[in-house]
Amino acid sequence: MDKRVKNTTKALKQTLFDMLEQMPLSKITITSLCKQAGVNRVTFYHHFTDVYDMISQIEISYVEELKDYNFKFTQNGKVNFLWIVRFVKKYSDFYRVVFNNNIQTKLLDEMYAELKKEYCAAFGKKDIPQTKLEYMFTFLESGASSILKKWVRGGMAESEEYIADLISEIFISMHSHI
Known about the structure:
Elements: H1 3-20, H2 30-37, H3 41-47, H4 51-66, H5 81-90, H6 92-100, H7 106-123, H8 130-153, H9 160-175
């Protein structure tokens, strides 16, 4: 990618994140975004169709990293959540905006979809009905998301290891009773 294009998209992205700290996505206009970023509207439209497309493209660039991660559960239900927590921290500007504005993110959806496949494969062997497994995973997914949201909104004061271990403990404890 050309350096000018990189600088332009970086300025637009940072400005969008700054604006989202102050107002909901639905209130951000392309005109105000471009004006604040010092970017021409034509340039914006060269890269994106609207602000929602911009959010989507940011997510897509992050999703590429997920493809290299192996979501495998051990027999006791442990999975390496540290990688996920570090991923959220690495893109904390994005996640702060997503969590504070309750924006549905494909990124977490894809991460959880991969986890769900592995979860159902690992725990389906314990003669747990598929429907029950899916409900249990939904509960765990919501809990993990809530912990990550609270952590990001709280300024990520706790260590990455602490948050990863906490999520993993919840996964394990839920299955220790089965």
